[in-house]
Design goal:
The structure is a single chain. It is built from 20 helices and 21 strands. It has 525 residues and is an alpha/beta fold. The strands form three sheets. A nine-stranded parallel sheet has the order 7-6-5-4-3-2-1-8-9. Helix 1 runs parallel beside helix 2. The radius of gyration is 28 Å and the shape is elongated. The two termini are 45 Å apart. Bound molecules: NADP nicotinamide-adenine-dinucleotide phosphate (NAP). The site of NADP nicotinamide-adenine-dinucleotide phosphate has 23 residues, from helix 16 and helix 19.
C-alpha cells in the first residue's frame, strides 16, 4: 500500500488581517508545510477579507505554501457564529482566489443549495479540492468506516476528514485502522490528551495532514501540539512508515520526562525510533486492552514500553500470563517497568528501577556490585522504590535494615526479603555504611524536609537519595556538608533510563545527554 505524504499544517486563527499576516509569516518560518486559514476566527468576516488573506498567504510564503480555507460551523467547533450562507460564500470566494483546499462540514454539504454553490465553484477550476469534514467532540464515531464510505459516495473527489475525541487511548485504534486501510487521501485524528499520539504518528500512517499550532496560545483544537513540540520533542521530520514506536504507559503522563530523554537519545544514535506519551486509563482492563490493540496491529510498529504508575503490577501480570520472558528480579519486586515486543510479537518484561538504583550507587562509590556483599545498608521507605532497592541489594548479599513510618509495611517487606526492620524513631541509632532514602520526604514542594536529621549523618557514610526533584535535596546537601559521599535521584533516574534504552535498542544511551535533560527539566519547574 502506498503511504501518502503528510502535510504539517498550521492553523492561522486571527481576529483581523494584521494578526493573520503576522501568524502566516511566523508559521512559515517555523516550518509549516501547509496553512489552514481558520477564517471563522475573523471578527469582520467577509468574502473580500478572505480573498485578501489568501492573496497575502500566497505572496508572503516562500516557497509558496498550499492553503486550506476553513470556515467552521459553531456546532462543529467554529469560533464565530456566522450564518451558513456567509460561510458557504466565503468558501466560494476562497475557490475563486486560488486556495488549494476548502474545508466544509459534510453535514452542510448534504444541503442541495450549499452543494450546488460549492460544486459549481469547484467545476470552474482544477486548482482547488474539497475537504469534507465530520467532527465528534464527545466520543468516537459509532462506525467510522461507514461514515468514510458515505462521504466518498456523496463526493468521490473529496478528501474525507474525520475527527473525534478519544476519551481513552484505546479509542484511537478505529482511526488508525481507517488510515491503514485507505490508500487514498484521508484525514483522521483524535482530539484530547488520550488522542495526542494520533497527531504525531499521522506521518507514519500517511494521514493527509496533521495540525500543529504556532504556540500554546493559538491552539485551535483540544490536544493540539505546537509545531515546536512536534518537530523538536517528537522528531516529526524523521518519522516515516518504517519508524518503530516506543512509549511510556502511564496515567497521568503529561509530566513524564521519558519522551524527551528517549527521543533525544534515539536521535543521538540516528535510530528510526519514536517515543510517545501513552495515557492509558481504566486500570488493568484499560492496560490489557491497550496491549491487545497494539499486538493485534503489527503494522503500527510498537516495539517497547516504559511502564509507570499505575501500571507496573498490570505489566507484571500481563507478562506472567501471555509473555515470552520475565526477568526473575522483576517478579521478586512485583513490578515490571519495561516491556519489549519481540519480532515474533511476544512480550518480555523487565525491571530497570533496581538496576538504575544499583548502578547509580556502585558507580558513585566506584565499586563493583559484588563489593556490596555483607555491607550494612539502611533503606528508608517500604513503597515501590524501597521494594526495588531491597530486591537489588538482596541479590548482591547486602545486610539490609528497612526503616519505615508504617512499621507493619517494613516488617512485611523484611520478612519477604529476609532482612531486619525498624520504625523511623530508631534512626538516631543508625550505624549503616550506606543510607538510601526511598520515601518521598524532601520532594518538591516540601524541600525543607529530610528523613534523616544532620546529627545522624557521618563522614564515612554513603548517602543516596532517590528523590530527584529537587536535584539536590536537603538530605544530600547536609550529607555533603558532613563530608559524606552522595548519590542523587537524577543519577538513579538516568541509570534506569539507560538500562531501558539498552533493552529497547540494544545500544548504550548517552548518559550525558540524559543527565542534561533531566537536570534542566527539574530546574525549570
Ligand atoms: P510509594 O510506593 O508511595 O512509597 C512512599 C514511601 O514514602 C512509603 O515508604 C511511605 O511510608 C513513605 N512516606 C511518604 N510520606 C512520608 C512521610 N511524610 N513521612 C514518612 N514516610 C513517608 O512511592 P515510591 O514509588 O516508592 O516512590 C518514593 C519516592 O521515590 C518518590 O517520592 C520519588 O521521589 C522517588 N522516585 C525516584 C525515582 C528515580 O528514578 N530517582 C523513581 C521513582 C520514584 P508509609 O509506608 O508509611 O506510607
Amino acid at each position: 500500500m502506498q503511504i501518502m505524504e503528510t502535510n504539517l499544517t498550521v492553523p492561522i486563527a486571527a481576529e483581523n488581517f494584521e494578526q493573520a499576516a503576522l501568524q502566516i509569516t511566523t508559521a512559515a518560518d517555523s516550518g509549516a508545510e501547509m496553512l489552514e486559514l481558520r477564517v471563522d476566527y475573523l471578527q469582520d468576516l467577509s468574502v473580500g477579507l478572505v480573498k485578501k488573506l489568501v492573496a497575502e498567504a500566497k505572496s508572503n510564503t516562500s516557497p509558496q505554501l498550499p492553503i486550506i480555507v476553513t470556515c467552521r460551523d459553531k456546532q462543529q467547533g467554529g469560533a464565530g457564529s456566522y450564518p451558513e450562507q456567509l460561510r458557504i460564500g466565503v468558501l466560494v470566494g476562497a475557490v475563486e482566489s486560488g486556495a488549494e483546499f476548502i474545508d466544509l462540514e459534510y453535514e452542510n454539504y448534504l444541503s442541495a443549495q450549499n452543494r450546488e454553490r460549492i460544486d459549481s465553484a469547484l467545476s470552474k477550476t482544477s486548482k482547488t479540492r474539497l475537504i469534507l469534514s465530520a467532527h465528534n467532540f464527545e466520543t468516537k464515531f459509532a462506525d467510522i468506516d461507514k461514515l468514510h464510505t458515505e462521504i466518498l459516495e456523496n463526493c468521490p473527489e473529496a478528501i474525507a476528514k474525520l475527527v473525534y475525541t478519544a476519551n481513552n487511548i484505546n479509542d484511537c485504534f478505529d482511526g488508525f485502522d481507517l488510515l491503514h486501510k485507505t490508500s487514498g487521501e484521508c484525514i483522521v485524528f483524535c482530539m484530547g490528551e488520550a488522542g495526542l499520539i494520533s497527531r504525531i504518528i499521522a506521518r507514519k500512517l500517511g494521514c493527509f495532514v496533521t495540525f500543529a499550532s504556532i504556540d500554546d496560545k493559538s491552539v485551535t483544537a483540544p490536544g493540539q501540539l505546537t509545531i515546536g513540540e512536534l518537530k523538536n520533542l517528537y522528531r516529526y521530520d524523521s518519522i516515516n512508515s518504517d519508524t518503530e514506536l516506543f512509549g511510556v504507559i502511564a496515567s497521568p503522563v503529561a509530566h513524564s520526562l521519558s519522551p524527551a530523554v528517549h527521543n533525544t537519545c534515539f536521535q543521538d544514535i540516528r535510530a528510526n525510533m519514536l517515543y510517545l506519551p501513552l495515557l492509558v486509563q481504566g486500570g488493568k482492563k484499560g492496560f490489557d486492552e491497550f496491549m491487545h490493540n497494539v499486538l493485534d496491529r503489527k503494522w503500527l510498529g510498537f516495539r517497547g514500553f516504559s511502564v509507570t504508575i499505575p501500571h507496573k503490577a498490570h505489566a507484571l501480570d500481563y507478562v506472567s500470563g501471555a509473555g515470552e520472558f520475565l526477568e526473575s528480579l522483576a517478579a521478586d519486586i512485583g513490578a515490571v517497568n519495561t516491556l519489549k515486543i519481540g519480532l515474533n510479537g511476544r512480550v518480555s518484561g523487565y525491571n530497570t528501577d533496581y538496576a538504575g538504583a544499583m548502578n547509580a550507587l556502585v558507580s558513585a562509590i566506584g565499586i563493583k556490585k559484588r563489593d556490596l556483599h555483607n555491607v550494612d545498608v539502611a533503606v528508608i521507605g517500604a513503597g515501590g522504590v524501597g521494594r526495588a532497592v531491597v530486591a537489588g541489594l538482596t541479590d548482591v548479599g547486602a545486610k539490609i535494615t528497612i526503616y519505615n513510618r508504617t512499621v507493619t509495611k517494613a516488617q512485611a517487606l523484611a520478612e519477604e526479603f529476609k532482612c531486619k526492620y525498624a520504625g523511623l524513631d530508631t534512626l538516631s541509632q543508625i550505624d549503616a555504611k550506606i543510607v538510601i532514602n526511598c520515601t518521598s520526604i524532601g520532594m518538591y514542594p516540601n524541600v525543607e524536609a529530610t528523613p534523616l536529621p544532620q546529627d545522624y549523618l557521618k563522614k564515612e557514610m554513603v548517602v543516596f537519595d532517590t528523590v530527584y526533584n529537587p536535584a539536590e535535596t536537603l538530605l544530600i546537601r547536609q550529607a555533603k556538608q558532613v563530608g559524606a559521599k552522595t548519590v542523587d535521584g537524577i543519577s538513579m533516574f538516568v541509570n534506569q533510563a539507560l538500562a531501558q534504552f539498552k533493552i529497547f535498542t540494544g545500544r548504550n544511551g548517552n548518559a550525558e545527554i540524559m543527565n542534561k535533560i533531566v537536570f534542566q527539566a527539574v530546574h525549570n519547574k
